[in-house]
Queue: 2 jobs
Job 1
Amino acid sequence: MFNNRVKISHLLTWEPAQQEVTVMGWVRTFRNNQFIALNDGSTNTNLQVVVELGQLDDAFLKRITTSAALKVTGTVIPSQGKGQKLEIKAAAIEILGDSDPEKYPLQPKKHSLEFLREKAHLRFRTNTFASVFRIRHSLAFAVHQFFNERGFLYLHTPIITASDAEGAGEMFRVTTLPFDHPPRLEDGSINFKEDFFGRSTNLTVSGQLEGELGATAFGDIYTFGPTFRAENSNTTRHLAEFWMIEPEMAFYDLEDNMNLAEAFIKYIIGYVMKHNREDIEFLAGRLAEEEKQLPADKRSELGLVEKLEFVLNNDFERITYTEAIDILLQSPAYKKKKFQYEVKWGVDMQSEHERYLVEKHFKKPVIVTNYPKDIKSFYMRLNEDNKTVAAMDILAPGIGEIVGGSQREERLDVLEARMKDMGIPADELWWYLDTRRFGTVPHAGFGLGFERMVLFVTGMSNIRDVIAFPRTPKSAEF
Ligand code: ATP
Ligand code: MN
């Protein structure tokens, strides 16, 4: 057996009593030819491995370099130095993989996040990214636990689809047709009948429509998978490939939907606050350091831990779109002409407006409901006023929109009329409309952008830093 190692996170909970142990990991630093700081990715706390002077020859010592991979066997003893409870007195060290210090691109010092983005294949070996990705893992686990505890069924909706759920999403085409000489019809257009699926297909922008098929049989379902949008938005909050969680529930109205979304967000934050305390505190410290560089009025009022606790312990504000517009029109920012984009009933709120509401006005997450029908999707339930739909967006401080959802239009005639108005081809969505033909029920759902949630919880500011291998316009390295 090769792998009888103890993970460092576990080992650090032991009482040192001369136990014999084997650890494996990568060298972070090596001081005075004596003290190895070893990291195995299970925690940011390095394990101190002590080499006795004269124990290893010079040639061997020179190979203990940053990021070299080691197998260490030794005994667990109380630490002589301060800063750690225990350390390993090495009996045997094996170098599993050398790391040439002349060529290894990361130094044991602080690198900028931009620099590390260029080295995304190695950035997991830094404390910041190790914390971010352990938290991301925990959030994903908590998502499944939350829904599983509530009897939701995890439905795998397709990645390749022939439908455009949003009606307006910019999609990546999936094809096996030769792009230099595709088969054409007489009118010159491309003949997708000859394509792999016999029709034009795309990568999914959302699993919602298929999710509704599940909800109208199982009651409560959720999806959690990758979605793709070929929108050319080079922002700190948009990716071309991102992960979305989309619960869809039969027998739910808009209020039930909001209650679930709020409980869900609090649950997954609570989970990482409990299980990833060390990583959260590390990132809180990182953020505090970073904010020191900012002018006083740009700094957050709350630290990361306080912010997350605040979200856990307070109700989200709930307002209608109409109220939101009124607040904006009354705001000092509007009166002083600080908004770049127009504010009036009927416009799609821009990020500056959303951020004003959550960061300046309410200073907490806000759920905005009942948007004008003209700026929302065809499947959202028309309200009695005939002007608004039962939509809800959740806006979070520092992020803006984190959730988009709605009660769905369950009335076949209303839905068909809306589709006609908006130019959505009903014949292509015959299967979707069947749910309204056979046992239709009030139902609702939402989509939470997973990376935006990870941003919120980690306090990172660029979405490229919370997904392992970001896909953005002009960038798909690694
Ligand atoms: P935005 O206005 O921020 O572009 P949207 O209205 O296009 O968002 P939806 O179509 O409602 O978003 O998608 C549901 C959720 O998915 C959003 O609330 C957001 O959290 C997330 N999301 C949407 N687009 C992206 C993207 N390009 N990258 C990462 N997350 C996204
Ligand atoms: Mn968008």
Note: The first helix runs from residue 8 to 11.
Job 2
Amino acid sequence: MSATPKTQFGYGYNINHKKIQKFNNLPIPKVGPNEILLKIEAAGLCLSDPHTLIAGPLPQQPPLKNKEKFIMGHEIAGSVYEIGSEIEKNLKNTNNKYQKGKRFALQINYCCGHCEFCRIGLDGSCSSTNQAYGLNEDGGFQQYLLIKNLRTLLPIPDNVSFEDAAVCTDSVLTPFHAIQKVKHKIQPTSKILVQGCGGLGLNAIQILKNYGCFIVATDKKEDIKSTALSYGANEFYNDIEEDSNHESQSFDIIFDFVGIQQTVDISNNYLKKRGTLSMIGLGKFQLILPNFLFAVREIEVIYNFGGNSIEQIECMKWISKGLIKPNVTIVDFNKLPDALEDLINDKVRGRVVFRPNKL
Ligand code: FEH
Ligand code: ZN
């Protein structure tokens, strides 16, 4: 292994700027007795990144005040580069779990492991702090990241690449979690609409395919049609209302990966009585739900955000078995600001991943 560099560079948030900032000459963090230094092997770019730059960091639980500067990047996979003295002492007792070189994906939120939610496996909803890599604390758009909460390290199966493991932390996990919450309602005869075929929607199609249901996908981008169909969508439309013969109130479940008024209105048109609307996309901060029209049909509306560690481990298993193949494009780490502009301008297809240590 080559010598640890003295400094590193990264990209992140600065409260005084609306654009991502490059931070040069950052120190490589010193490792405490119970900490690990992770070498970042892959870090994915997400629409939450431009949202963070504009709307600010994910709020933390008081009394924690949000940082004014931090390294962004919340879809992270890496290898153990250095371990603290206490972890070293315990290596044998932990079956060498944290040995140098071991491969891990990070759970985005720093779950505490002992709150009411963590104790029942719902650690994605941990109620302790809301600290999250790259969203209000340092993340993966740099070469080395200090891991203070070992609970956030989830082992990557041998045949899963760092790039796939990185995007699994969010762009696979989030749709997987949303689908797990309604899977008891999915039958081979179910008609399901996936609105939005971006990074998350394309993964949703692949996950849903395993339940044998009929999948209709929509996206305003025409060029995504062949990918959506090849991932398992039975039909694809740019505008379902204009281009299809689907009847009103004929869908059992709709997954909305866009989250704008137009997609809510489409869901209102197409959901059956007692249908389910699963909201994932955060296109708009606030939306008007058709209160009366949903009430008379007893529509169930479910909101989703991220997922739990047990689901993230399961997602990696699905990838290792070839059941999900994330759509990943590797981009030079030095080109990160350009890739972010492309994402903002809707020019990105699937997920962009950087390899900060492969320059
Ligand atoms: C997942 C888990 C925790 C925080 C944020 C997320 C993502 O949905 C952000 O894109
Ligand atoms: Zn994200």
Note: The chain has a mean pLDDT of 96.
